[in-house]
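Take a careful look at the protein record below. Let me know whether the structure tokens fit the sequence:
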Amino acid sequence: MPKLVRLYIQSVALGFVLSAAFTGGLLWLDVAGIGHLVAASEIGWIAVVMLLVFNGIVFSGVQFAYRIMALAEPEDDPKGGHGVREPVLIPAPVPVVASSMKRQRR
């Protein structure tokens, strides 16, 4: 089996394990009353399955992305110092002339 496929399967498995732990924590700690709602309903198991599946998809994707990005080789190039500089505001004095004459209507 190719290494990338094995990495993906491991990431998906770990993502669903994390999803099960997260969903169990939500139900056990009764966050926002979810544990009570699931326990009091006849079809509360559907909510638990949906939480497991959807959180599993999210956690698997995050886990796989993290593992892929961790495979990158470190860059040896120098960092910073060559970007575009920020503009510097320089105050420009504006002379103000007081006018003693008012505008006349025509």
